[in-house]
Write a structure and sequence with these properties.
By secondary structure, the chain is of the alpha/beta class. The protein has 14 helices and 14 strands. This is Iron complex transport system substrate-binding protein.
Length: 329
């Protein structure tokens, strides 16, 4: 077993040991009471949540990675995430926590659950249009926390934090809010160590050009620099063809994809459409026919649970690095 594989096995075991309904006592340095946190440009005082609700896989798996499943009131999980939930390393935790809704996050669901704290992203959970915002929840006495990655889209003065640092920030701050700082520090240290191992093993030479395909036929929906897949591709030793777009997820034109001449296509797999159908479309789409990715049949599947900001990001980068090595890149 190589040293990198050994490290991965040990750290993955460490992460999973706190999932699956583990009971986590407050750390020795966490006292009961309130903590003050900076989140999306706001300074917020948080009492320790007693009935927390998490939306979607990004929120839920951050909580599970910190061993907080048994302290959750429930989750809101859109049905499109079902296949990824079944593949999650925290499947047992998903089974142990009540699913409050299989639709988008709504104020009604939060109030019906008598939640006192909500974890979600801006425009991927919280929404001005749907009337569930941090300020609205504040007015009802319900605290909230937004994913740091999504602060890029929030307010008139967006907060820009690189995707992996945004993940680490969330885990550390959730550790403070729930008074399990020691546990959060260990989880972050494990993830950082694995990320550094990947950086050190990147091959010399020009990185392979990678097109991240989420969905779309008229125009493709893809990841810009501010979303997790960009960091996953970079850590693995590739270069996202839209790495220079100062966006999270965005729509681009097919012309720019063709001009970038991708060598590998990473396809996001979630329940909106079978990944096999997405790949079949890409293979049959005439403008892409002469790109190296299509000519050499180089497709890599990225699970939805790994594509959103969450503790599976590093494992996804490790898997993609293995794929790039397997094709000699």
């Amino acid at each position: 077993m190589t040293s990198r594989v050994a490290i991965t096995v040990l750290l993955t075991t460490s992460l999973l040991a706190t999932g699956c309904g583990a009971n986590v006592a407050p750390s020795s340095n966490g006292e009961s009471g309130t903590v003050t946190i900076e989140n999306c440009g706001r300074t917020i005082e948080y009492p320790e949540p007693e009935r927390p609700v998490a939306y979607d896989m990004s929120s839920t798996e951050k909580m599970f990675a910190l061993g907080l499943a048994d302290r959750m009131r429930g989750i809101v999980m859109p049905s499109t995430a079902d296949p990824s939930v079944k593949r999650s390393p925290w499947r047992e935790d998903y089974s142990s926590v009540e699913t409050l809704s299989t639709d988008v996050l709504s104020l009604e669901v939060v109030l019906d659950a008598n939640a006192d704290w909500v974890l979600a992203g801006w425009e991927s959970g919280f929404s001005q249009a749907r009337g569930i915002t941090p300020s609205k929840l504040d007015s009802l006495g319900i605290r909230s926390y937004q994913h740091t990655e999504s602060c890029f889209n929030y307010g008139s003065d967006p907060v820009r934090v690189p995707p992996l640092e945004a993940l680490y920030t969330d885990l550390r701050q959730l550790g403070k809010i729930f008074h399990i700082e020691d546990r959060a520090k260990r989880v972050v240290a494990d993830l950082k160590q694995r990320a550094q191992a990947l950086r050190e093993q990147q091959p010399q030479g020009a990185p392979p050009r990678v097109f991240i395909y989420d969905s779309g036929t008229d125009k493709p929906f893809t990841s810009g620099a501010q979303a997790a897949p960009n960091a996953i591709v970079s850590l693995a030793g590739g270069r996202n063809i839209t790495h220079d777009l100062d966006k999270r997820w965005t729509t681009i034109g097919w012309e720019s994809v063709v001009q970038a001449n991708p060598e590998v296509i990473t396809v996001v797999d979630y329940g909106d459409k079978p990944v096999e159908d997405k790949i079949a479309f890409l293979k049959s789409f005439p403008p892409l026919a002469q790109t190296p990715a299509i000519k050499n049949d180089r497709f890599h599947v990225l699970d939805y649970g790994a594509a959103v900001s969450g503790p599976r990001n590093i494992a996804a980068a490790e898997k993609f690095a293995d794929y790039l090595r397997s094709i000699g890149r």
